[in-house]
Amino acid sequence: MNPANPGAHSPSSHRGDSVSSSRETTTRFPLDDWMEAVETEHVPRSDLNQIVLDYLINAGHKDAAVKFAREAGIVLTVDVGLMDNRVKILDAAHDGRIADCMKLLEETSPDLLEYNMDVYVVVMKQMLLELIRERKISEALQYAQDVLAEKGAEDPTLLEDFERALALLAFDKPEESPYGDLLDLSKREEVLHLIWFWLALLRWM
């Protein structure tokens, strides 16, 4: 299944109500956009409150979500601890700590990587790219071999993606190679966007 591109509608990094300035400029989805969208429609106040609450939850604004739910008289049905985990997952993806991101996903949303090949391929490829970025050559080769042995037969595109990534190892300066775009930091943002989209979607599944 190929999800709709979540584009720029993604959360900023938060710990409580603090904002990570490094991510704010690229991934913050302003609350004003939500308000402008609903003000053009005749939306009941209760529905509007729920839209705002959903935004706060999905964006990882835990303290703000709890406070807003209390003031709006809405029963908060989401585990607050899961909101903390979501922020940790997105922080790890943003920082390129893909091993940590995968571990947290397996602990909190194990089905996401197990049954969603779209997410699996993107996350696994980014893990390989981070190993190459750190010039951990032997680890990158072993990782690619292990992943392809496990999942390569199920999805031929995985082999193609990994071959292009592994081609980076042929260059002394992989960032300047014809495949250097794979090491652009924007790739981390793509991983973050995709994970955020599916974590938000899983709330309603």
What attributes does this structure have?
65% helix, two-stranded antiparallel sheet, single chain, disordered N terminus, 205 residues, 2 strands, 11 helices, mainly alpha
Report on this structure.
This protein is mainly α and 205 residues long. Helices cover 65% and strands 2% of the residues. It is built from 11 helices and 2 strands, in the order ββααααααααααα. β1 (14-15) and β2 form a beta hairpin. α3 (45-58) packs antiparallel against α4 (62-72), α8 (117-133) packs antiparallel against α9 and α8 packs parallel to α10 (156-166). The longest helix has 17 residues, at 117-133. Mean pLDDT is 77; it is low at 1-29.
Overall pLDDT score:
77
Secondary-structure element pattern, one letter each: EEHHHHHHHHHHH
Strand order of the largest sheet: 1-2
β-strand amount: under 5%
Determine Rg (CA atoms, Å): 19 Å
Shape estimate: elongated
As a percent range, the share of helical residues equals: 55-70%
Largest sheet: 2 strands, antiparallel
User: How many runs of DSSP E, i.e. beta strands?
Assistant: 2
Q: Output the number of helix runs.
A: 11
- Structural class by sheet pairing and helices: mainly alpha
Span between termini: 15 Å
Catalogue the unreliable spans: 1-29
